[in-house]
Design brief:
Blueprint lengths: L6 E5 L3 H12 L3 E5 L11 E4 L2 E4 L5 E2 L6 H8 L14 E7 L2 E6 L2 H11 L4 H14 L15 H10 L3 H8 L4 H6 L4 H8 L8 H12 L3 E2 L4 H15 L3 E3 L4 E7 L2 E7 L4 E3 L2 E4 L3 H8 L7 H7 L8 E11 L8 E11 L2 E10 L11 E11 H9 L2 H22 L8 E6 L1 H8 L23 E2 L2 E6 L10 H18 L13
Parallel strand pairs: 1-2, 1-13, 2-9, 6-15, 13-20
Antiparallel strand pairs: 3-4, 5-8, 6-7, 10-11, 11-12, 14-17, 14-18, 15-16, 16-17, 19-20
The structure holds flavin-adenine dinucleotide.
């Protein structure tokens, strides 16, 4: 590069924005990030309440296994160190129906043995399920470069390393979680495979998620979500990047077929050679550049919530005593039904954070609930005025606390409310479309959503976000940041296979 560095401005300091910023600096650009919130992290967040830390993201971080391409990316952006410590959880999750239960342990032999003991009549289906979870352990998020920039060798290598995945796709790629549940006879097994993730997901998504945990490629980094974000911010600043928090971006400035920068909420204009939008894609296509730049595929997915559903959560955090609660990881249990909006809820998921001592005073831990919420639930929350919203939250806190105490009577007199948040919170805090914290759910009959992250008609604008590839999540966000910078390098003729830049 010449003396004068070219300038990239990035909108949003979530995982994708920070990743783009770090890769941009490594590639020799001058980089500034503008984030509307007072702290970076976006949906990868954590906050403090009354002496407790509420961690609201990482249940599993795909790409923690050493030697994988994605682990290199996490290390490059400073999210993980080479000697990173992890929480060392043993469980993917547990499902309870009445007084019976089943657990998906990271130890697949143990899972298989326990499931067979619970339901010998499901033997064939259990063995098939476990075999395919083993196959799915080879699945990796493509993280070296965007698929459309791959050469024949890259495809051969990918095919070789994921050789068993076609078997998983063949068996579980065309059915959803409801269909998978139908294959089992035992009610606990039915709930085990269909209750944790939205049931509209294709069965292979669930199998790959479990396989990721079971192969040691989906750990929780010590310190949790916020600590990981803070390591990325430190890396970004140490490389010379500038992060402006509490600075909302109003518009992307366009002249002809190019952007020349951004306009902040306070009216200030910031010029740039490249703009990377790392905010929610809907913000890009409405407020920042307008709907006329939305291509056919984006319009298709946004216009049909039935084919392309989104989900979020109604969540509550409590403090409880460690000695009173002995569950490990996420536990989904059935309960007396209750209503949210027009929908009946029959299960509640709870998770203890006892694995992280720093999150609570000694002898205590944080217990969180998550009740899945869909597009319609978002509309319900949105329809309430301020007072109705407050009252509905309070009513649900009472109901859900009651359901938890029915399931875990040992917590009676020892459960203290800390905080509660809804899909609207994600919209308010992160501008998240419909409060969704993952991208579009891939249904069994639909093509998985994937776009390049470029905008037709604006040649130097890129989208780096979990929204570019279903199902979204942290791995997609981090590689989206890297991919946006690789596209800029390609545009400048600086991208080669086996790139000499430190863009691992
Ligand atoms: C409860 C929960 C559990 C989760 N569990 C997991 C998990 O276990 N594993 C996993 O992989 N993923 C998980 N996720 C998903 C993960 O958090 C997201 O996929 C990821 O953080 C999205 O990153 P992003 O950078 O694409 O977007 P975001 O985090 O949404 O970042 C966008 C940023 O842009 C900012 N912004 C928006 N508009 C503007 C504007 N106009 N001007 C300036 N800034 C703006 C926002 O404030 C935000 O900081 C979970 C999320 C939640 C909420």
């Amino acid at each position: 590069m010449k003396d004068e560095k070219k300038k990239i401005v990035i909108i949003g300091a979530g995982i994708a924005g920070l990743s783009a910023g770090i890769y941009g600096l490594l590639a020799g650009y001058e980089v500034s990030i503008y984030e509307k919130n007072q702290v970076a992290g976006g949906e990868c967040m954590g906050w403090n309440r009354r002496g407790y830390h509420i961690d609201n993201c990482i249940h599993w971080l795909t790409g923690t296994k050493k030697g994988t391409e994605l682990r290199k990316v996490w290390e490059t952006v400073g999210a993980l160190s080479p000697d990173q410590e992890f929480a060392g959880t043993e469980v993917f999750y547990t499902s309870c129906v009445g007084n019976q239960r089943a657990t998906l342990w990271n130890d697949l032999e143990r899972t298989e043995k326990e499931l067979l003991e619970l339901s010998p009549e499901d033997e064939a289906e259990i063995r098939k399920f476990i075999t395919h979870v083993r196959y799915a352990q080879s699945c990796e998020v493509p993280s070296s470069k965007p698929m459309d920039m791959m050469g024949i060798r890259d495809y051969i290598e990918m095919g070789r390393s994921m050789a068993d995945m076609p078997k998983v796709m063949k068996e579980y790629g065309k059915i959803d979680l409801e269909d998978l549940a139908e294959k089992f006879k035992h009610p606990v097994l039915k709930k085990l495979v269909s209750g944790y993730m939205p049931k509209e997901y294709t069965a292979y998504s669930f199998i790959v998620s479990y396989a990721t945990m079971a192969s040691g490629n989906g750990e929780i980094p010590a310190g949790g979500s916020l600590a990981m974000v803070n390591r990325m911010v430190k890396r970004f600043r140490e490389l010379g990047g500038t992060l402006f928090c509490g600075t909302s971006v109003n518009r992307i400035l366009i002249q002809g077929k190019k952007t020349y920068g951004i306009a902040l909420e306070n009216g200030e204009q910031i010029t740039a050679d490249y703009v990377i939008c790392a905010a929610d894609a809907r913000v890009l296509f409405t407020q920042l550049i307008g709907e006329k730049y939305m291509n056919k595929r984006w319009r298709e997915v946004y216009s049909d919530t039935r084919r392309y559903p989104l989900f979020s959560g109604f969540q509550i955090a409590y403090s409880i005593s460690k000695e009173r609660y002995h569950e490990n990881g996420n536990v989904l249990f059935d309960c007396e039904p209750f209503m949210i909006g027009g929908r009946s809820v029959e299960n509640v998921c709870v998770k203890s954070f006892a694995y992280e001592k720093a999150f609570a005073p000694e002898s205590k831990t944080v217990l969180q609930t998550n009740v899945l919420q869909y597009d319609e639930d978002y509309f319900f929350w949105e329809s309430l005025d301020k007072e109705e919203y407050r009252r509905k939250k309070e009513e649900l806190i009472g109901i859900i606390t009651d359901r938890i105490l029915t399931r875990f009577p040992e917590l009676e007199g020892d459960i203290e409310f800390l905080d509660c948040w809804t899909p609207l919170t994600y919209h308010r805090y992160c501008n998240a479309y419909h409060g969704a914290y993952m991208s579009f759910v891939t249904k069994k009959d639909e093509k998985p959503f994937r776009v390049k992250g470029t905008v037709k008609g604006i040649s130097n604008l890129y989208l780096a976000s979990q929204w570019i590839m279903a199902p979204g999540g942290l791995p997609v966000a981090v590689v989206a940041g890297k991919f946006a910078v690789q596209r800029i390098l390609k545009k400048e003729g600086r991208f080669q296979n086996g790139n000499s830049l430190p863009l691992s």
